[in-house]
Amino acid sequence: MVKWIRQPQEQEGNYYFSGTFYVTRGIQELLSQEEILAIYQEVQKLVKENGGLDYLQVYVAEGEEKLFFIDQLSKEMIESGDYKEEYNYCTLLLSSEY
């Protein structure tokens, strides 16, 4: 299993990565289910510990392409209720798929 390392956030944020979780085809082809789950669980743990994160979490592994884990809605957006439910999602993708 490849060791994916989360990079430091560029800024603070209040994103919870609490919506529907999607992974792209590139992620499905490159990572194992265990790696995908480990990244998801790490981000969920960090959200709880920090009361939210930046909308963009970046992961790297030696010799591999960067991974982006992006959330769509901040805490304020969710609490406002002024959005369509289908817009509440987070996506794990390869940087080249962005």
List the helices and strands and how they pair.
Elements (H helix, E strand, L loop, with lengths): L4 E2 L13 E4 L1 H6 L2 H18 L5 E5 L6 E5 L3 H6 L8 E6 L4
Parallel strand pairs: 2-5
Antiparallel strand pairs: 1-3, 3-4, 4-5
Helical fraction equals: 25-40%
User: What is the strand tally?
Assistant: 5
Major sheet attributes: 5 strands, mixed
Fraction of residues in β-strands? 15-25%
Decide which structural class fits the backbone: alpha+beta
Number of helices: 3
Spell out the helices and strands N to C: EEHHEEHE
Quaternary state of the chains: single chain
Global Rg: 13 Å
Specify the overall morphology. Answer: globular
Can you tell me the residue ranges where pLDDT is under 50 for at least 5 consecutive residues?
none
Q: How far apart are the first and last residues' alpha carbons, in Å? A: 24 Å
Mean pLDDT: 96
Total individual domains: 1
Describe this structure in words.
With 98 residues, this protein is of the alpha+beta class. The chain has one domain. 31% of the residues lie in helices and 22% in strands. The chain contains three helices and five strands. It has helices at 25-30, 33-50, 75-80, and strands at residues 5-6, 20-23, 56-60, 67-71, 89-94. The protein has a five-stranded mixed β-sheet with strand order 1-3-4-5-2. Strand 3 (56-60) and strand 4 (67-71) form a beta hairpin. It is globular.
